[in-house]
Amino acid sequence: MVNKIKIPRTMSTQHPDNVVTPFFAESSVIKGDDEVKEAYYVFSHLNCHEQMWDYEGKEVDNFVVKKLLSRYSHFFTENILGEDYFLTLRVPNPSWEKAEAKVLLETLESIPRSFDAAKLFYGRDVAPIFEVILPMTTSSVELNRVYYYYRNFVVGKQKRRFFQNDVTIAEWIGEFKPDEINVIPLVEDLPYVLNCHEIVERYLADKLVEWQRVFLAKSDLALNYGMLASTLALKLALAKLEEVEERTSVEIYPIVGFGSPPFRGNLRPGTAKMVVEEWCNVQTFTIQSAFKYDYPGKDVLKGIEAINSRRKKKCEHIDEEKAKQVIKKSSEEYRKTVLLLADIVNRIALYVPGRRERKLHVGLFGYSREVGGKTLPRAIPFCCALYSIGLPPELIGLNSLSSEELDFAFEVCSLEEELNFAMRYFNPRTAEMFDLRVDVVNEIDAERNEEYVKITNEILDLLGKNRVELLEEKIVQAARMRRFLG
């Protein structure tokens, strides 16, 4: 395995759920050179160990390593990029993103060039980039294609000669390093999350490695199946990965992709300690833009320290049969309800401001054709749209559960805290408009934010009068009160 180093515990991502524009950004949309500045900022000021460098669905700087080392040499002379702090590339998955497929190959080809830049800077062999994240992973075959393409076609070509009796490629332009890369599966859809242990074990079968990282997504899982189903699925998946660790003697280091609202993980500076205690068998937690930019600096640092100061350990396992039963019932109810809301969600999402320069992304959400083939926006604008009309998505999908099933959910998840948070932003008017049963409201004794309810009423009125030119302003106003966009 490449770079036998400490595994990071806090990963900064580029997911655009922030309301406040970072001080280093030239505009409200973070793009291009701003993201290079952001990488330095999260390393040097926030003490995030790792920055996800996202090539999926966006144009990104291919020369980030060279720029970081040349612009911020005072920091990276003492803090080795690739040993103390890490850049991890998130690449397109050609199985799902055909239009972006060749970006994967270009990105893999850039890794040896980054190695050369670091070697020149440090005067020794250092691999500043040695891992890639493959989104929407559904099989070990997809992982192996990336792993072996790099090994056999990026690095492997250096031994080839141009023609008979001529020099090798390596003799002409230099060696290609690192020799191998680590491929991290990012598993995002329910069947594959519940089966991720098999995907990982098959991938490891022909490799002599000491550790393997596995990335489990929360946002898209929640978007597709609801908050409760996504939470229970992740807990089951993490338990199964512990079993893989025991069978293979390979250390498994899970990463979870949590966002600010409970729907997407409930990870904010003030909840960080609680979240890492609940998810004790997770090694690396992602922090997204709202965590970094929508709270006072001292609170952000305290939250990151809560993540960095703990160590991964085994968690108490939950009843698999009960969990799968609750997943099935709650997700079916959730999807049925979301279908009723799809039109208004899509309408509002058009006015949710973007915070990163991104291209269209291939989402996983889809419904059967017999119900009209409804589609939804990505998780952040989806979540923002529902919060903006006073219907936090955390409340959707729980009505189908029996008292016993709800008791189970409250026992194994931090459901009470999460629903208490959501209830502050609930507007009963919205539930009445769509004739939605939100029985769990009666179980939660939370103080409602009446000022927030007023804003959501204004948004509903604007929609009713089709005065959409004022929507973005009100959406942002509501988001500032929550301290996250979506």
TrEMBL record:
Pfam families: PEPcase_2. The lineage of its organism: Archaea, Methanobacteriati, Methanobacteriota, Archaeoglobi, Archaeoglobales. This is Phosphoenolpyruvate carboxylase. It comes from Archaeoglobus veneficus (strain DSM 11195 / SNP6). Keywords: Carbon dioxide fixation, Lyase, Magnesium, Pyruvate. One of its GO terms (biological process) is oxaloacetate metabolic process. Homotetramer. InterPro entries: PEP_COase_arc-type (IPR007566), Pyrv/PenolPyrv_kinase-like_dom (IPR015813). Belongs to the PEPCase type 2 family. Its EC number is 4.1.1.31. Catalyzes the irreversible beta-carboxylation of phosphoenolpyruvate (PEP) to form oxaloacetate (OAA), a four-carbon dicarboxylic acid source for the tricarboxylic acid cycle.
